[in-house]
Design a protein that fits this description.
Radius of gyration: 20 Å
Number of helices: 10
Mean pLDDT: 84
Order of helices and strands: EHHEEHHEHEHEHEEHEHHE
Number of strands: 10
Helix content: 25-40%
Length: about 270
């Protein structure tokens, strides 16, 4: 059985907006299949058919894991009455469209026992969104999103490692950032407002691009031998994923994989 795609959402500190971003993504992912199939939006036209990894319609069923660090005890809460309590983050995730939500509470030292059990219970879904820095470091999601403040100094020491490995860094506009300007320390940061549809589409597009590149890299590593791959196989990767030959060629160059027996100058 194919494992679900995993998206991790971590943050600089408590209250930075992790659940807000998580809910916005869940709302988008779980409702995208309701769009009329005969109407293709301008945003959807920007993706090759094979590269819409998250919004292609194949990822309709999403779950979520909310992690809270505790001092002594471990538990996996699945009681609907508890998860649905007013103002709980788990309630927000359910309301946003998560089919199943689990609230994992554990000391970091016991995550190795508790988190795999929770993830296994959601493994039948198409995607799982994981909220919590320590949980992300343990599960190693396919895409990691880090929520930062406008000032890098506000990133707590325990979150610095996650910031450096994040695929996408976003700054909620409520933290004083202009919607069009990223801070000097992170020129590629996305300024995000959950109520701004255009901002959400920009985030989705960035996630799609990262997911596609990682898929290309995975296939190149799997199908290359001794750092070399034939042009025929490289072209097959491009056609399988619905991306250009150039994207595959660029990824091969970054991985220092040589494309041999090149045909028609494709690469």
């Amino acid at each position: 059985m194919k494992k679900p795609v995993v998206i991790g959402i971590g943050g600089a500190h408590s209250g930075v907006g992790k659940t807000t971003v998580a809910a916005a993504l869940l709302n988008y992912f779980t409702r995208v299949e309701h769009r009329a199939s005969s109407v293709q939006t301008s945003e959807e036209k920007s993706f090759p058919a094979g590269s819409r990894l998250l919004t292609s319609g194949f990822f309709k069923r999403w779950g979520a894991i909310k992690f809270t660090k505790t001092a002594f005890y471990s538990s996996v809460v699945d009681d609907p009455a508890v998860l649905s309590e007013e103002d709980k983050d788990t309630r927000k995730l359910l309301d946003a469209g998560a089919e199943e939500v689990l609230w994992v509470q554990a000391p970091v030292t016991e995550l190795g026992e508790t988190l795999p059990l929770a993830f296994e219970r959601l493994s039948h879904l198409d995607g799982v969104l994981v909220e919590g820095n320590s949980a992300i470091e343990f599960l190693k999601p396919d895409i990691v999103i880090f929520i930062a403040s406008i000032s890098k100094e506000k990133v707590k020491a325990s979150a610095q490692r996650l910031l450096h490995r994040a695929d996408i860094v976003i700054i909620p506009s409520k933290h004083g950032a202009e919607k069009t300007a990223a801070p000097d320390w992170c020129e590629e940061c996305l300024i995000f407002d959950a109520a701004d549809g255009a901002a959400l589409e920009r985030l989705i597009q960035r996630m799609e691009a990262i997911g596609t590149k990682k898929n290309i890299e995975t296939l190149l590593k799997e199908k290359s031998v001794d750092g070399r791959i034939t042009c025929t196989i490289a072209r097959g990767i491009a056609e399988e994923l619905g991306v250009s030959y150039k994207e595959v060629g660029n990824a091969a160059n970054e991985l220092k994989i040589k494309i041999k027996n090149c045909e028609l100058g494709c690469f």
